Amino acid sequence: MHLLVIEDELKLGDYLRKGLIESGFNVDLARDGNEGLAMALTGNYDVIVLDVMLPGIDGFKILELVRKSAATPVLMLTARDEVADRVKGLEAGADDYLAKPFAFTELLARVRALLRRGSLQESTRFTLADLQLDLTTRRANRGGKRLDLTAKEFALLSLLLRRQGQVLSRAVLADQVWGMNFDSETNVVEVAVRRLRAKIDDPFNEKLLHTVRGMGYVLEQRDDDPL
Ligand code: CA
Fold first, then answer.
1. Are 108 and 96 in contact (CB under 8 A)?
2. Tens digits of per-residue pLDDT, 16-45?
3. Which of 20, 185, 199, 212 is the most exposed place for a label (fewest CB within 10 A)?
């Protein structure tokens, strides 16, 4: 699931991005209207969380332009719980509306509701061999046994599972799981991959998480895996 958050308030934007990533989504964050519009028009998003009051182009204008080309579900955020704004947003084609301040759990529930209702509905369960992950219950199992994962390990595994068979670079993982620019000095990705591997692969004969030297990591079944 790929979400775009367009929010100029630095703290709120970071908070939403972090929370949504930890809830198992891939998240892009735009800090102003111009950047947000460009991303909304070029990216293939499952839901857009759109603030109304933005520097550059405001949320209503972005919504209007997005609606000309895409049916992507849009959840609008506003600082004011004004009926006029709500009506204007819904008339412009917003799918839902949330007034600030709001609880993260409410935003998450509404994003999930939009995904369920949206045409781009995607499964919340992912499977590879005897490994399973469920985004709704936030549980992962292998061989019928529950895996005890940290929030980051869960996010890392869900990204690798969603994109199974694709090699994901350390930079992509750092960005999508930790929300940070990749810095080759840090080994946070390697450490997390090692810990994840110890939980999902080490106790089992068949290895699923592979290192592709110089490229990154891939989750896939391989026939010729050395034991
Ligand atoms: Ca704002």
1. no
2. 999 999 898 999 999 999 999 999 988 889
3. 185
Q: How far is the CA of 58 from the centre of ligand 1 (A)?
A: 9
- Say how many Å lie between the CA of residue 10 and the centre of ligand 1: 9
pLDDT mean by block of 10 residues, the chain; 227 residues: 94 95 93 95 90 92 85 84 71 83 93 76 78 89 94 92 89 84 80 97 95 94 67
**Cα 59 to averaged position of ligand 1 atoms, centre (Å):** 9
CA 127 to ligand 1 center in whole angstroms: 39
Ligand 1 center to residue 19 CA distance, Å?
18
Output the CA 63–ligand 1 centroid distance in Å. 15
Yes or no: say if 54 and 37 are a contact pair by the CB < 8 Å rule: no
pTM of the model: 0.55
Query: How many angstroms does the Cα of residue 51 sit away from the middle of ligand 1?
Result: 6
Q: What are phi and psi of 62, to 5 degrees?
A: -60, -45
What pLDDT score was predicted for residue 184? 67
Residue whose entry in the numeric block shows the structure tokens 């600082």: 79
> Which pair of tokens denotes residue 117?
């209702």
Q: What is the pLDDT of residue 90?
A: 73
Task: Please tell me the distance between residue 6's alpha carbon and the centre of ligand 1 in angstroms.
Answer: 9
* Model pLDDT, residue 118: 57
User: Is 14 buried (19+), middle (13-18) or exposed (0-12) by CB count in 10 A?
Assistant: middle
What pLDDT sits at residue 95? 86
Instruction: Name the strand (E) or helix (H) holding 18.
Output: helix 10-22
